[in-house]
Design brief:
It is a single chain. The chain has about 160 residues and is of the alpha+beta class. It is about 45% helix and about 25% strand. The chain has three helices and four strands; from the N terminus they run αββααββ. A four-stranded mixed sheet has the order 1-3-4-2, covered by helices on one side. α1 runs parallel beside α3. It starts with a helix and ends in a 10-residue tail after the last strand. The model has no long low-confidence stretch (mean pLDDT about 85).
Length: about 160
Amino acid sequence: MDVLIALIFAAILLTVGFVFGSIEQRRHYRSIKQREVDLRDILLFNEKHPPPEFAGQPFALVCGSVVMGSDHFRQFVAGLKAIFGGRLTSFEAMLDRGRREAILRMKEEAGKMGAKAVFNVRMETSTLSYSHEQGNGKAGLACVELVVYGTAWCAPGEVKPHGV
């Protein structure tokens, strides 16, 4: 009887994770797409140094960060993929959303300062809890932090105080 209850509970968790995770992912992608359109005027460059024409003009550090977590369904699918091999597409979508969200947050910060471009854009990732043992001996849900940072260029005369 205990095994049956555990299986039913696991099935409920997987179903809830799949349904609500899918709904949230679609909602988040719609939000990301709209914000990308709204912020398309702020250009991003991964070049280390801005063009010489920008010498002596105002620059500022901008960053955006996000922590993305998995749900029980994605964790279950990833466990099956680990057994049989293959790409972890459920996590690829999560990381794609995380990268895009972190970039948007950086662009929003740059936009508040009146920036027109961000140079030397870099991204760092950090796994937070994928393999850490919890108190019950089971692995925790996968979480990853993504940090994007760069040097924002503000057009002369358009510099706004940071945070305004």
